[in-house]
Structures are given as C-alpha cells and as structure tokens.
Write a structure and sequence with these properties.
157 residues; 6 helices; single chain; 44% helix; 5 strands
Amino acid sequence: MTSVLYPGSFDPVHNGHLALIEQAAVIFDRVVVGVGWNPLKPSGLFDADERRAMLTATTSHLPEVELAQFSGLVIDAARDNGVDAIIKGLRGVADFDSEVEQARMNEATGGVPTLFLPAEPAQGFVAAKYVREIARMGGDVSGVVPAVVLARLQEKL
C-alpha cells in the first residue's frame, strides 16, 4: 500500500488543490491531506477547523483520502502519518525552484522523498492568496473554488 502526504494551508481549498488530490487518489492507495499552520505565513482567512471542514466536504467522494491537521514541520507530519512520500503540485517554473529546495531539505532531514505532480493546465494559475484577495475585494471566484468554499467565502466576507 503506497501512501502520500499532500501538505498545505488550503486557505481556502480551491479547484487546483482538488484536481491534485483527485489525481493523487488515482495513483496512490492512501492520500493524507495535511492541513497545516505555517507561522511564517501571515494569518489566514479561515482557521484550521474551517479549512478541514471545507476539505471534508470537497473530498468526501474519494475513499482514498483522509485528512490530518498539523503544525510544525512537514517532515514530522509525514512521519506521524506513516506515509511513503510527500507530494507537491507544480504550477510552473517559479514553484519548481522553491519546491525542489524544500524537497531536498525534507529528504535530508527526515528521509522522506517528495514527488511532484504537475498542475492541470486549466488550474495552473489558481493560488489561494489570489482567491482570498479577489473575494475580499468583491470579485467573482466561483470559477476557481467549489460551491461549498464559495458559500463560506461569502459568509466570511
């Protein structure tokens, strides 16, 4: 049984995240979506429980997917969840440079390899920070987030 961790802040989960989760669920037996808190990132829009609830609602059709919350190092979350590898999505060249550095550090300090999955072209431009910014300013993000996330954004803002 091959299991992977897909870590992220998922603030909020968007269609690009979901496409990667669905892709991973086809390839791997078990996909742990790790909802993390990164103290180096500015405060998010949704707290960890809200993000987890949105992920639960949007991944319930995937029996291979389970959710976990973590704070701290991704490598510790990988070990705590007993996964074989970490997966990361790549939207483009800019992602590649930073993600490769992180992957090398994770493997050097924790022994868990990272596998990269390319973003689907239709979702390759979507980033949670843009979703939050556009939604805060009253823009339409309905084409890049699931309906449950859109409803939560509208309630929150």
